[in-house]
Amino acid sequence: MAVTKTISSSSLQIEIESGKDSSGNTTYKKKTFSNVRTDAASQNVYDVATAIKNVLNVKTRDFFVSESSTLVSA
To answer: Where exactly are the structural domains of the chain?
Structure first.
């Protein structure tokens, strides 16, 4: 039985600095940008994330792409 995976939605997440914990370590939270095209090239998503990072007033750390997929039995 063959199974097909199809990406149904995608979002971009950027970790942004949110403060310090009780030990003085930097804490981060994720800012999510929904409705990223599921067929968008990785370089294009990275370029958009970098552009967003450049206009934010906080320090950032990592970029993530979250994808939701459906599995269908063929």
So the answer is: 3-73
Which 3 state secondary structure label does DSSP give 32?
strand
What tokens appear for 26 in the block? Answer: 């930097």
pTM for the whole structure = 0.82
Alpha helix (H) residue ranges in 1-74: 42-55
Render pLDDT for 27-72 as a digit per residue (tens, 0 to 9).
Answer: 999 999 999 999 999 999 999 999 999 999 899 999 999 999 999 9
With the C-alpha atoms ordered 28, 33, 38, 39, is the resulting torsion angle positive or negative? negative
Rounded CA-CA distance 53/14 in Å is 8
What three-state secondary structure class fits 9? strand
Residue with tokens 């970029």: 63
